[in-house]
């Protein structure tokens, strides 16, 4: 009997080994461990054994069954694994085919530049002030120390609607309006982005409609050195940490002293190249200390308060930053242009 | 302003500083030097020659054979093609081996069989612009004065070895429209002194009052009018150095008298005019406003009709000059002129600007009057002119000056403390440094314990207040020395307003939804101004548009977005999805500012989605556009307050247009472009929308509140309702929601059918309804009860039947 059991175990293990799919394996299970299988038959024949022999044989039967069972399970796992692998192999795809495109638009390059500047100044404690594009002559000119008859305000250069109303020529009227709202009390710390209009023929470098960002700080102890520090900070965040700036004296009716501000060339680092026309510097801003007449007209005591203001053109900055050669691109909305600004 | 480096040395010592270095210093101190022109365009070996003989070239009609002494041994033979070459002339000769502009080398040559050892040059051949060459020499060679030394360097005599600084002046620095003014600026920068011209005036015993009288009737326009008589002048060329300086400054030489007036204009910045005294037609000068319709023929031979806004110089009867702009032809100095009346006056800016504008006539004189001259030098300039005419035109100066003078020159005195200067600039400049700068500027001042009392010279009309002095100090101290600090004081956090923050989110959403941001023009034409407008008003027109296409302010963003779509389509970009956020302008009455309202608009056309190799392709349709908007409303927390209503709008497809209502108020539209408009813009099937962005962003929205995640299962029931085809899904859905009560959480549409399997005029809409109670598991029975109520409601309200 013992020999018989060992023989059965041997046979079963061989068949398990030979089974090469799950069905064959199941046939082996049924054949050897099923109710009608040879091991059950051996168990049935145990009644003929002596009481001493019975437990010994019983243990042996169990050992054999377990050995077969283990072998079955192991083989089953192997076969299942193989089956899965086969299935997966059949499911292989060409991963180099294009993915399902995600449709994605993007900011206009001017918005991109404007938001970057906005965020930069928000970080320095500024708020964003906005105002009307159709403006009163008073806010656009008079309140900015450009009285009627001033040569810098030729009718020919501005889009007037009536004698007193025009399309603003700069965003400075927002400064005048904001100061007026403060009723002579500082601090004022704003930047004013927006569209402006001038009576120019559209060509590669002129546009009758363009954008501006101006900044204004008015408080009791604002110094011109603060203007320099602020703009240097701006230049470094906008154009790179190793940028420097320089002031060149200039003239604007609404500031005194007035300066033009150059940033060291971000293309060549200041050695001179095509972008900076060999000078190492790029003119980027106009700025100055707010003219006392402007402060007084807006209700600020110019003996007590001082302030600085600056202004720049997002078009110019975008053109420099991205190497754009024609200002008209900004207003044609050619998708082949707009799409180029679709990434970080 | 063109500043000759060589000429400038008359007034200020430039030793040790090149023209280029000077230009850099001037630019740094505040006046931009746009460029430095090297007048020598590569010339070598051009000297003064003396034409000893001239005869006709034996083989060529238009050539002359000349024997020229060039100061080197034997005279040389030169063949010359200039019509005006003559025996006895002093001329510029490019010797053999010389180089002319353009690297043109002069070689020994044979011209029609005759030897030529060099070339006699015209000024143009030496690089002078034709418009600057004296008229008589434009078509020939330039003839030097007879005293020009043979063999001398011609370039030096012509100032062609000079460099010219081109100053770009800001309007406040009109003082630098003169050589003396520039000299003061340069002296201040370099810390050197200014050498003014010396005037030696030899008057005769006669009195000018016996010749002429002056009366000014328009004193506000002309506070000072002064004049002198110089008699016995002989009109001829001015000295070579003067001609050379004028050409360097961009003015063509004419004759000695005219050249002297121009020379003084450049030297002093004081425009002068020389009249032929004998042609004045009277013995008096009356300055007055012109009479309406009065005419004058100016020096350029143009008859000009005047108005009362123009100022004229008259002989008591008729105009002899358009004051400050141009003289009259009738009193012009001519070759036979012997007695000259020199006018030196101060005309105020507005009346001159008006004349310039009305007559489109800008001259060196008018430019200076427009920008403001220094009236303190008006009479000095007159004296200098008279002295030069005596010296270089052989004139005799009649004793005395006629003048009408109501000018009240007041000294401008500015008081400022050192403390204030440093406080505004953020510097630690010392008292001594400030004093030094003021001294270099040649401002008179006293200083007492840090307080400076400064008398501003009349040439610096731009300086009137403390800040102007601060600027002078700052620019000469050097902005490079200004420290860089950040403002000290109350610090407020910077942030966006809620509106600005939401607007940015809207932009990002639309872009992530596949739209590109466009920026179009605010100005449009009359027809497009009101097209598609949500609200219309009287069009706002520019007073002086540059073109009809950009003459009126827009009331909708859609037309220009359509133009952009069309522009792209014309360039083979067929799939366009653009949005714009921008203002529209609604008139508010003639004297009021318009209402500027911010709008959001979009245009979509072409293929919306394509994944070609997998066979997916979806064209834009109404529901694409609507889906974008649905997402936007959801982003803003408004999806339940927003309603679409079928609408009819001009320029849109009458069956495929919806108005959008927020809390029952119309705030926008979305629809397909009407085929006619589509064709007009050369587009294919296109959808547009426009929304009142302010209404959308300013509305109050509840903050986000957490609701419990469902703990119990929900039950979903589907129904297909058959209704008349005119019943709209939105209305059905509204009724279902109302009838479903608390337990009905979601209603979605999953099928719409119209066709053979339904009776004519009917359609079926299938809804999926999800029921849920947050407190417990619903029983089938409860759901069935509610569901039956829903069915009953739609049966009653719409005659709906369940589709079997």
From TrEMBL, chain A:
It comes from Anoxybacillus flavithermus. Binds 2 magnesium ions per tetramer. SUPFAM superfamilies: Class II aaRS and biotin synthetases, tRNA-binding arm. It catalyses: tRNA(Phe) + L-phenylalanine + ATP = L-phenylalanyl-tRNA(Phe) + AMP + diphosphate + H(+). Tetramer of two alpha and two beta subunits. Its EC number is 6.1.1.20. This is Phenylalanine--tRNA ligase alpha subunit. The gene is pheS. Its main location: cytoplasm. One of its GO terms (biological process) is phenylalanyl-tRNA aminoacylation. The keyword ATP-binding applies. Transmembrane segments: none annotated. GO terms for cellular component: cytoplasm. Pfam families: Phe_tRNA-synt_N (PF02912), tRNA-synt_2d (PF01409). InterPro entries: aa-tRNA-synth_II, aa-tRNA-synth_II/BPL/LPL, Phe-tRNA-synth_IIc_asu, Phe-tRNA_ligase_II_N, Phe_tRNA_ligase_alpha1_bac, Phenylalanyl-tRNA_Synthase, tRNA-bd_arm. Its cofactor is Mg(2+). It comes from the Bacteria. GO terms for molecular function: ATP binding; catalytic activity, acting on a protein; magnesium ion binding; phenylalanine-tRNA ligase activity; transferase activity; tRNA binding. Residues 61-92 form a coiled coil. It is found in: Cytoplasm. Belongs to the class-II aminoacyl-tRNA synthetase family. Phe-tRNA synthetase alpha subunit type 1 subfamily. Mg(2+) binds at residue 256. Residues 111-320 form the Aminoacyl-transfer RNA synthetases class-II family profile domain.
TrEMBL record, chain B:
PROSITE patterns: B5, FDX_ACB, TRBD. GO terms for molecular function: ATP binding; catalytic activity, acting on a protein; magnesium ion binding; phenylalanine-tRNA ligase activity; transferase activity; tRNA binding. Keywords: Aminoacyl-tRNA synthetase, ATP-binding, Cytoplasm, Ligase, Magnesium, Metal-binding, Nucleotide-binding, Protein biosynthesis, RNA-binding, tRNA-binding. Its EC number is 6.1.1.20. GO terms for cellular component: phenylalanine-tRNA ligase complex. Gene3D superfamilies: 3.30.56.10, Bira Bifunctional Protein, Domain 2 (3.30.930.10), Ferrodoxin-fold anticodon-binding domain (3.30.70.380), Nucleic acid-binding proteins (2.40.50.140), Phenylalanyl-trna Synthetase, Chain B, domain 3 (3.50.40.10). Its cofactor is Mg(2+). InterPro entries: aa-tRNA-synth_II/BPL/LPL (IPR045864), B3/B4_tRNA-bd (IPR005146), DNA-bd_dom_put_sf (IPR009061), Fdx_antiC-bd (IPR005121), Fdx_antiC-bd_sf (IPR036690), NA-bd_OB-fold (IPR012340), Phe-tRNA-ligase_IIc_bsu (IPR045060), Phe-tRNA-ligase_IIc_bsu_bact (IPR004532). Residues 409-484 form the B5 domain. It comes from the Bacteria. Residues 710-803 form the FDX-ACB domain. Residues 40-155 form the TRNA-binding domain. GO terms for biological process: phenylalanyl-tRNA aminoacylation. Its main location: cytoplasm. It is found in: Cytoplasm. SUPFAM superfamilies: Anticodon-binding domain of PheRS (SSF54991), Class II aaRS and biotin synthetases (SSF55681), Nucleic acid-binding proteins (SSF50249), PheT/TilS domain (SSF56037), Putative DNA-binding domain (SSF46955). Mg(2+) binds at residues 462, 468, 471-472. Belongs to the phenylalanyl-tRNA synthetase beta subunit family. Type 1 subfamily. Tetramer of two alpha and two beta subunits. NCBIfam families: pheT_bact (TIGR00472), YtpR (NF045760). HAMAP family: Phe_tRNA_synth_beta1. This is Phenylalanine--tRNA ligase beta subunit. It comes from Anoxybacillus flavithermus. The lineage of its organism: Bacteria, Bacillati, Bacillota, Bacilli, Bacillales.
């Amino acid at each position: 009997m013992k020999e018989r059991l060992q023989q059965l175990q041997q046979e079963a293990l061989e068949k398990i080994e030979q089974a090469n799919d799950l069905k064959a394996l199941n046939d082996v299970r049924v054949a050897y461990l099923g109710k009608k299988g040879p091991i059950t038959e051996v168990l049935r024949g145990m009644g003929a054994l002596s009481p001493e022999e019975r437990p010994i044989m019983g243990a042996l039967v169990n050992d054999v069954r377990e050995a077969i069972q283990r072998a079955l399970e192991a083989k089953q796992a192997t076969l299942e694994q193989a089956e899965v692998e086969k299935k997966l192999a059949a499911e292989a795809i060409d991963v180099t085919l294009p993915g399902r495109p995600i449709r994605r638009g993007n900011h206009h390059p001017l918005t991109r530049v404007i938001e970057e500047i906005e965020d930069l100044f928000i970080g320095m404690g500024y708020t964003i002030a906005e105002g009307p594009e159709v403006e009163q002559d008073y806010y656009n000119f008079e309140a900015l120390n450009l009285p009627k008859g001033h040569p810098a305000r030729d009718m020919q250069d501005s889009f007037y609607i009536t004698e007193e109303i025009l399309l603003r020529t700069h965003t400075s009227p927002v400064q005048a309006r904001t100061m007026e709202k403060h009723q002579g009390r500082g601090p004022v710390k704003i930047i004013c982005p927006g569209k402006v209009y001038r009576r120019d023929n559209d060509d590669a470098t002129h546009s009758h409609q363009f954008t501006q960002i101006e900044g204004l700080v008015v408080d009791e102890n604002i110094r011109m050195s603060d203007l320099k520090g602020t703009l240097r900070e701006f230049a470094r965040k906008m154009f790179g940490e190793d940028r420097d700036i320089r002031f060149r004296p200039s003239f604007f009716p609404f500031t005194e002293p007035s300066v033009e501000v150059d940033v060291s060339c971000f293309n060549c680092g200041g050695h001179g190249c095509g972008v900076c026309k060999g000078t190492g510097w790029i003119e980027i801003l106009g700025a100055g200390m707010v003219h006392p007449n402007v402060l007084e007209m807006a209700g600020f005591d110019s003996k007590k308060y001082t302030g600085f203001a600056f202004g720049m053109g997002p078009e110019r900055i975008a053109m420099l930053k991205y190497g754009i050669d024609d200002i008209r691109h900004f207003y044609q909305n050619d998708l082949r242009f707009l799409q180029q600004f679709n990434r970080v | 302003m063109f500043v000759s480096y060589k000429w400038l040395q008359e007034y200020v010592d430039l030793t040790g500083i090149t023209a280029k270095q000077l230009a850099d210093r001037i630019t740094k101190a505040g006046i931009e030097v746009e460029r430095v022109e090297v007048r020598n365009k590569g010339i070598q070996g051009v000297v003064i020659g003396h034409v000893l003989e001239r005869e006709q070239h034996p083989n060529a009609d238009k050539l002359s054979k000349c024997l020229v002494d060039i100061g080197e041994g034997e005279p040389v033979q030169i063949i010359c093609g200039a019509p005006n070459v003559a025996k006895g002339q002093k001329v510029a000769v490019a010797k053999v081996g010389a180089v002319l502009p353009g690297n043109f080398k002069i070689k020994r040559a044979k011209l029609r069989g005759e030897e030529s050892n060099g070339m006699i040059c015209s000024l143009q051949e030496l690089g002078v612009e034709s418009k600057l060459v004296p008229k008589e020499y434009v078509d020939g060679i330039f003839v030097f004065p007879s005293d020009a030394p043979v063999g001398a360097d011609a370039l030096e005599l012509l100032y062609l070895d000079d460099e010219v600084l081109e100053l770009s002046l800001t309007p406040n620095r009109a003082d630098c429209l003169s050589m003396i003014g520039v000299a003061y600026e340069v002296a201040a920068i370099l810390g050197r002194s200014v050498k003014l011209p010396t005037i030696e005036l030899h008057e005769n015993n006669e009195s000018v009052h016996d010749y002429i009288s002056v009366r000014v009737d328009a004193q506000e326009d002309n506070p000072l009018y002064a004049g002198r008589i110089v008699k016995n002048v002989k009109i001829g060329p001015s000295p070579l150095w003067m001609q050379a300086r004028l050409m360097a400054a961009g003015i063509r030489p004419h004759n000695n008298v005219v050249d002297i007036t121009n020379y003084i204009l450049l030297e002093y910045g004081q425009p002068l005019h020389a009249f032929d005294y004998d042609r004045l037609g009277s013995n008096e000068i009356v300055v007055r406003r012109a009479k309406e319709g009065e005419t004058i023929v100016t020096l350029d031979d143009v008859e000009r009709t005047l108005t009362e806004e123009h100022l004229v110089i008259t002989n008591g009867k008729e105009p002899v000059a358009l004051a400050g702009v141009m003289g009259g032809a009738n009193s012009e100095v001519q070759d036979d002129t012997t007695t000259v009346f020199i006018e030196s006056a101060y005309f105020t800016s507005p009346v001159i600007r008006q004349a310039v504008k009305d007559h489109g006539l800008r001259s060196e004189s008018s430019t200076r009057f427009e920008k403001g001259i220094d009236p303190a030098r008006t009479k000095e300039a007159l004296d200098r002119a008279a002295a030069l005419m005596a010296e270089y035109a052989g004139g005799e100066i009649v004793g005395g000056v006629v003048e009408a003078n109501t000018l009240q020159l007041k000294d401008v005195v500015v008081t400022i403390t050192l403390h204030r200067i440093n406080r505004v600039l953020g510097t630690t400049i010392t008292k001594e440094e400030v004093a030094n700068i003021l001294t270099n500027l040649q401002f008179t001042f006293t200083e007492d314990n840090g307080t400076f009392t400064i008398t501003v010279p009349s040439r610096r009309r731009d300086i009137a207040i403390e800040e102007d002095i601060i600027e002078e100090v700052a620019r000469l101290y050097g902005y490079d020395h200004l420290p860089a600090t950040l403002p000290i004081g109350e610090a407020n956090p910077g942030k966006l307003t809620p509106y600005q923050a939401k607007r940015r989110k809207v932009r990002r959403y639309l872009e992530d939804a596949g739209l590109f941001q466009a920026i179009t023009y605010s100005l449009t034409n009359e027809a497009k101004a009101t097209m598609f407008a949500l609200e219309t008003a009287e069009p706002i027109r520019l007073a002086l548009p540059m073109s009809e296409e950009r003459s009126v302010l827009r009331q909708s963003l859609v037309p220009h977005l359509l133009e952009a779509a069309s522009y792209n389509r014309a360039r083979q970009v067929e799939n366009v999805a653009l949005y714009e956020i921008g203002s529209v302008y609604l008139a508010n009455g003639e004297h009021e500012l318009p209402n500027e309202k911010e709008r959001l608009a979009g245009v979509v056309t072409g293929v919306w989605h394509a994944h070609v190799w997998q066979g997916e392709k979806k064209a834009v349709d109404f529901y694409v556009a609507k889906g974008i908007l649905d997402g936007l409303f959801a982003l803003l927390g408004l999806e339940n307050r927003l309603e679409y209503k079928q609408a009819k709008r001009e320029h849109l497809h009458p069956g495929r247009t919806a108005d959008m209502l927020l809390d029952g108020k119309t705030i926008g539209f979305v629809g397909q472009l009407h085929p006619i408009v589509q064709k007009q813009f050369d587009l294919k099937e296109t959808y547009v929308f426009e929304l009142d962005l302010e209404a959308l962003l300013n509305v109050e929205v509840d903050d986000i509140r957490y609701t419990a995640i469902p703990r119990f299962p929900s039950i979903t029931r589907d129904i297909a309702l058959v209704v008349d085809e005119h019943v709209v899904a939105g209305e059905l859905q509204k009724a279902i929601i109302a009838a479903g009560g608390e337990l009905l959480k979601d209603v979605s549409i999953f099928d719409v059918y119209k066709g053979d399997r339904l009776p004519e005029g009917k359609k079926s809409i299938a809804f999926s309804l999800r029921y849920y109670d947050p407190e417990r598991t619903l029983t089938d029975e409860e759901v069935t009860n509610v569901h039956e109520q829903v069915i009953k409601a739609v049966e009653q309200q719409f005659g709906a039947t369940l589709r079997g």
